[in-house]
Description:
The protein is an alpha+beta fold. Helices cover 22% and strands 36% of the residues. It has a single domain (27-124), classed as GTP cyclohydrolase I, C-terminal domain/NADPH-dependent 7-cyano-7-deazaguanine reductase, N-terminal domain (GTP Cyclohydrolase I, domain 2, 2-Layer Sandwich), CATH 3.30.1130. It has helices at 6-10, 67-75, 84-99; strands spanning 22-24, 32-42, 49-59, 63-65, 103-113, 116-124. A four-stranded antiparallel beta sheet has the order 2-3-5-6, covered by helices on one side. It is globular and about 55 Å long.
Amino acid sequence: MPDxxxxxxxxxxxxxxxxxxxxxxxxxxxxxTIRFPEYTSVxxxxxxxxxxxxTIQYQPRKVCLELKALKMYLLAYRDLGIFYENAVNxxxxxIVAATKPAWCVVRGEFTPRGGLYTNVEARWxxxxxxxxxS
Length: 134
């Protein structure tokens, strides 16, 4: 199998994905936690499937994520070649762009591969953000 390349490393980062629709928020100062236990994507090097649970926690300001649009967005990763780390950071980037929250945390808990468990957590803003509760 060939070595990892920069193309593998960037795979999926700028792929076109469904739009994250939002709706107006009418109540300030609360948190939303969304858990998606059926995440799948594809390793950009081997083409093998990856599985895991994605948890999104955020404090909305003016808008909230519309859940059906979020589901379609997350399902679009199913055939996308992208590394775990890039997927979690891409999700954070897209959610923050769509909602402009007070803060947001995206956590990926991926099923073991070769006996290794991988959890990836990305936060916005990077400092002074609450840790995601399990």
